[in-house]
Amino acid sequence: MSRLGIGLVGCGGMAHSVHLPAIAALKDRLELVAVCDRDLARAEVAAGEYGGRAYSDLDKMLAEARGLDIVAVVVHAQHHHSVAIRAAEAGKHVIVEKPLALTVPCADAMLDACKRNNVKLEVAENYFRMPMDALINQAARSGVLGPTRTVHVLDPVNGCSLDIGVHRYSQLREAAGGWPTSITAYSSPPPIPECQRPEGAEAWLEEREFGDWRGREWSVAMVTFDNGVLGKCEHFPLGREAPVWCGNLRMIVGDAGAICDDLWPNVWPWLPRGRVTTKRWGGHTGHQEIPIRRTEETLFGKPFAVRIELGSTPPVVWENPVADVLRRSARGTVKETGHENKATWPDWFVAELTAYHTFANAVMEDAAQQYGGPKGRNDVELTIATYESARTGTAITLPLESITEHEEAIHEAFERRYGRPIL
């Protein structure tokens, strides 16, 4: 199999800004054979720019598209599970934009469908694939800090939500290097599903706002991991225009040192790239800062990291897994469109390109996915468990064993909105 056929479902802004440019750049591995959107005109625009046949009916695409091996799901989150399940039942491998699903039962249904049909399920989670995030996680697990004791993640921009919470809990878990066993959370005000918010009964009818989008709650959660690491995740909904950007948005502390960073502003072009510091303890007299060397190449007029090295002994090195793909890609491969184009945000685009590159390899070689459905499910579970712990005032043991009140509200709202059960 020289190339895999891929079909994309959902031709909105995210498709044009990230997914379609990434697929186009991977011409040696992926061929876009179909695009689908309930608005046929949008599908035709995507097909005209990137290729493939345009559809407005998912089942027709699954039945008719020739050479279709993978389906990329880029619809609104409340529809992730239904599209993914239908694709899996048609024998197609599936890669899904985050969050994997709006509720844990929906995520479980996706995992079950993919397992029953012997197809792979991947999540296009971008943060852990970003260059500095990848280096930080490697450093935390390399022993340069000694055994990791605690990880602290702070998002000063967004409240805890299924849209953003999955990112932060992914970062927390990947840095901790273990699997979460319990969570104790506090929220002010108490978390309320978007469909139940008092500002208007019709607010939840908006597709993008369905379920729980950005989140308005200030929250803090303590997470225990099976390897003994203690995690702390905080969300402060100050907004992207917040006048204060505090440092130490993430801190990983071990017996022998610590890593601190304020990297998250780097995904917004008008904010600074951010800074990472790695320090080894020096006893009572101070500490030693370990240098980080970043090697870049200019591609598409932007500086892409091709190698990042932490000057420890031994060194910790991240090598860009898609550097050759970027070098081979012609200027016209990453198309400029009328949409906000994250292909011009180097670290973000490296992450999304890596997601498709590694998933294509996993399908071709019948190997394990780089991230995988179970981690995507856990990202959703941690966010839902935050709501449940804050609502009940109790610690929540993981994994969740039954549907939560928050999830029930989302399921009920889905049935009211679409006239059918969510599952």
Q: Care to describe what's here?
A:
The radius of gyration is 21 Å and the shape is globular. It has a 9-stranded mixed beta sheet. A 6-stranded parallel beta sheet has the order 3-2-1-4-5-6, sandwiched between helices. It has 2 domains: 4-125, NAD(P)-binding Rossmann-like Domain (Rossmann fold), CATH 3.40.50.720; 128-340, Dihydrodipicolinate Reductase, domain 2 (2-Layer Sandwich), CATH 3.30.360.10. By secondary structure, the chain is an alpha/beta fold. It has helices at 13-25, 40-50, 58-64, 80-89, 104-116, 131-142, 165-176, 323-328, 346-365, 373-392, 405-418; strands spanning 4-9, 30-36, 53-55, 68-73, 93-96, 121-123, 148-155, 180-188, 218-225, 230-235, 250-254, 257-261, 276-281, 287-290, 292-299, 302-310, 316-319, 396-397. Residues 198-205 and 330-344 have low confidence and may be disordered.
